[in-house]
Amino acid sequence: MKQIIFNARTALLTCAMLFSTATASFAGAQDYEFQAVQTEIKQGPGSTVSVRLVDKRTGKTVPDAVLFTTRMDMAPDGMETMTTTVEPTTSTEPGVYAFTTNLSMEGGWRFQVAAKVQGEPETVKGEVVLKAIP
Ligand SMILES: [Cu+2]
Fold this sequence. Notes:
Elements: H1 2-25, E1 32-36, E2 40-42, E3 44-55, E4 60-61, E5 66-74, E6 79-84, E7 86-89, E8 96-103, E9 107-116, E10 124-133
Bound molecules: copper (II) ion.
Copper (II) ion (CU) binds near residues 74, 77, 82 and 105.
């Protein structure tokens, strides 16, 4: 009986070790997340949208990422083909990336971003949902 308990415990430990090894080898783009600094944005031209890039392993923001693809559309309101302009602008806070956009219609907007993070070979992709308010 004692031997069985011992074996079960060893098996559990082995499993835990295997699992953590597997987790480590799959570390990558999914360790990062884009978060909207503000989800309610004034409808109309010249609004600023800011997203924070966070390393989920540490909870810290990630500065110096290169954001190279962006798309703003109304997918949350069933209008995926309705897009608008979104241009990078200067941000004062490290790890926060700011954009000027024109939310031409009130309602839900989806902001998609792809980025290169230093030391991370995979492309980091993310999206946030915003609401254009009067
Ligand atoms: Cu629309």
